[in-house]
Every structure is written in C-alpha cells, then in structure tokens.
Design the sequence.
C-alpha cells in the first residue's frame, strides 16, 4: 500500500500557525506520497452521539462524517494538526476523535483492525515558551494511537500566537524538514514497558 497522508486541520481560523507549520513539514514528503487536507471548520462534524447501549451505528453515506471516515480509512498516515487550546486539542479535533468511537462500533468497518499498524502524527503551535505544557495534547494522541495499535510519530511543536509567528521559530522550521522522515515506533501507553531504546512516550521535542 503506497503512503497516503491525511492532514486533519483543527484550527478555529484559516492559515493559522499550526497549519503553516504542517504545510512546511508536508513540503518535505516525497512527490509520490499522496496528500489529502481536510479543514474541520470547513467540514464541521456534528456532536458525537454515543449509541452503544441504544442502537447500532450505521456507516454514514454523506456529509462531513462520511468524508472524514473515508479519508481516515484510506490513509496510511493521519496527521492531527491542532493548535494547543487550553493545553489539549481543539474542540473540532476532539469531536473528530470522538467519532472514532462510533466507527469502532459500526458493523462491517473493522475500524480498529484497519487502522492498526498505520501511523498517527501531531503538529501544534502554542503561545508558550515551555513545550512541556503541550503534554496533555501529546498524551491524547499517543494514547489514542496506542489503543488503536498504531505507531506514533510524535508531535511537531512550534511557537506562535499572532498569525505567521511560527515562521519566526527557526527551531520548529528546522524540525519540520525531517519530521516525517522520523521512525515512528509502535505507540504504547505510559504504563507499558517500552522496548529497549524506545521512549516511554514519544512526543515533545527538545528546544
């Protein structure tokens, strides 16, 4: 299966710092790697409704939910590009991940088995000098990948508040050049014993 990257944009504004950083990283992908970009603001998902004890989920046949589901199933690599909002992912991004819960219970999808072995990545921009404050966001993505049996490539972190600020973060731009070339280990929960040489939770870059 040839590599296909799905970039899920979770910012509340267009062309934000997170998207700018994600596009810088995507520029380094080989030309034969297919890319699909979906802006969750342009394709708003409805609130997730938990039906597991009431009725069966059915596969969506149209609208944003079907678009995101089909794109997710087709991707070898899913990139969550969400700015740091209150120390975690944005509301739009969380809603997308919540819909994974429904897809796990949709007959005929085998969503978990299909996604196992694929790779989850993160890109985020924050208006804070200490990267450790992004720990909850990193944990959300790492643990989601671990539950799904996916690899986790970590989080590309940049600094920026005003539009375009991240383009002044030379360290982040340097990391973006090689971010997707990194080896992505199998995601593990923090309480699991990592294999020799593996980080306990891959994610936060050193600055």
Sequence:
């Amino acid at each position: 299966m040839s590599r296909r990257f799905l970039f899920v944009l979770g910012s509340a504004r267009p062309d934000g710092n997170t998207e700018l950083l994600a596009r810088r990283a995507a520029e380094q992908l080989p030309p034969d790697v297919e890319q699909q970009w979906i802006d969750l603001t342009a394709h708003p998902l409805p609130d997730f409704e938990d039906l597991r004890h009431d009725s069966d989920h059915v596969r969506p046949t149209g609208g944003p939910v079907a678009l995101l589901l089909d794109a997710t199933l087709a991707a070898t690599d899913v990139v969550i590009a969400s700015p740091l909002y209150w120390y975690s992912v944005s509301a739009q991004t969380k809603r997308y991940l919540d819909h994974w819960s429904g897809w796990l219970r949709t007959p005929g999808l085998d969503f978990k088995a299909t996604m196992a072995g694929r790779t989850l990545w993160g890109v985020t921009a924050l208006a804070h000098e200490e990267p450790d404050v992004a720990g909850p966001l990193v944990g959300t993505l790492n643990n989601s990948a671990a539950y799904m049996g996916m690899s986790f490539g970590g989080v590309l972190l940049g600094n920026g508040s005003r539009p375009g600020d991240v383009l002044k973060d030379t360290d982040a731009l340097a990391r973006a050049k090689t971010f997707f070339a990194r080896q992505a280990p199998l995601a593990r929960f923090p309480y699991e014993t990592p294999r020799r040489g593996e980080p306990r939770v891959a994610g936060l870059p050193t600055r």
